[in-house]
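Annex B. Sample input.
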Amino acid sequence: MSLLFTSSALRLWFRAWVWLVVGLLLGGCQAPDTPANQGLVQSQQWRMDPGGQATLADIETATDWQTLPEWKSWSYGPETIWVRLNLRSDPSKSTLPWVVQVRPSYLDYVTLYDPTNSLVQRTGDALPPNDMELATINLTFQIPPMTSERTVYLKLRSISSRVMQVKVMPYGEALKKNRQQEWFLGFIVIAWLLFAAWALTQWFYTREQVIGAFALKQLMAMIWGFWMLGFARLTVGAWLPERWLSDITSTFFFWMVGMSVWFLAMLIREYRPWPMALRACHGLAAFLAVLPVLYWAGQPYLALKICNVCIPLATALPTIALLSAWRNQNPKPIPQKVMLLYLCCLGLLSSVLASMHLLLVEASSFVVFGSLAHTVFDGIVMFFVMRTRARNLAKEQQQITLELYRSQEKAQAEARHREEQSQLFAMLAHEMKTPLATLRMWMDAGQLKRDAMERAIADMNQVIERCVHTGQLADQGLQAVAQTVSPTELTRACIQACRSPERVNFAVPASHASVETDAQMLSIVLGNLLDNACKYGAAQTPIEVTLTPAVQGDDPGWLWQVSNQVGLAGLPDADRLFEKYYRSPQARRLSGSGLGLFLVKGLLDLMHGSITYSAQDDRAVFSFWVPTQPTSC
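Annex B, continued. Sample output.
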């Protein structure tokens, strides 16, 4: 089904529908003097029998005949309409019958009298097809041609609107024209079906109420059109009792108009109109939905007249509702001006046919076939409006989803920020408390020494510096600055600055080549690793530091290794070692911020270096590499 509604397919369908409407207007609006209508008919008149009791003999002697135009409407009523056709002679001596065609096909009872040939035939929407009719959607009679002029009569009784066109054609021409009309009208029914199928498919996936209402509207139009245009009589008419075809068609007519009002109300509701105007639309839709009760209760003419009066209201009330929401300037899937233009055009076109049924407008081919064309254009316009609306709603939903996602991301980021702040404050409180407690202990003992004071202050400075550097790393405020550094001298300086330089054994490399990198970042990296080894390694055990040239990939560089014997803190979790604030359970008994190794990893990333951790023979070994050239840094 989706293949039928791709962009290229939609363009093809639109062109086909445009040509269909043009064909309906051109094919239906034949001039009264064309051979198809006047070639076999010399004159045609009509008269009304108010009581419906006149016999053929009475009609033959009647003198109050009026000229019958190509199309004539007598509105609704119980009166009987008689039509007199004065036929020309047939000089062709053809043996094929003539065909008397009566349109539209929803007329209930049409009887043909051919006194010259003592022929009486009956047809109509209330009757099943018979053998004397052509297999077509139109009401037809077959009469023998004659070499002399003669008069035939048609008697019309119909509960439906009495609109009539009569044509007499040769058999071959009648077959051709009927097939053309069937193709045109069949395409209309298929168009309604495709609109309904598309809308039902969209509703199945979206469950959107307006799309569902559009689907029901189009489905109701398709069912009504199938019965009203004569396709139901041709296909299932033989199995239905008398009048069922006509009554079902009228019932679906009420429901189709009511469904159209309901759909427009659903569509206008998005504009937030005045509640009373919207309730009026709902009330009209409900009234039309129950109007068949009046029809089936024995008042069909009244019910049909009321429904035709309600057709202009079916667009007038939604238009008023839309105008009541004109000040609401919130963006909508369909702009209000576009919707107002659509409602005005729909109201004008749909009211023409109703006005003809109520004798407010003269019947004509343009009115009959133009109204049929307007139903096709209404479906096309509404189909594209619904597609545009669905696309705009999808964009709005996507935007809402994106904003919701951003809000959730922002909320999660704020929650993480608050959690990190909480962890930071807890760590700072713990880490500051330890050196301060040491100072207080020495003060209380009266043995406050300069070395102890400097160590406590250095510990506090170290914690603060790590917090500052970590914050700069998170804000991307740090940037490596390449400068020429001697890796050997920088290592020695870091060893001398650590808390236990006497425990560090440094294997001095044979090469004294320099490295171009950020000296301060490299000092922080090495200083943090030495500090960890001093704090968490076994007490009084040596700390081994090695420095060797090393190549990673195609890049030369320097490789540092800092190892210490495992102390009371035990071995850390290798998978979480470089996480922010991570500390092993045993290490939590000792002072520490949980930021050192996280900072080391971040600074090495800025210098395009790398770091690994391994446990070898009960020793914790950290190996980090830094490239030699600044272009690789």
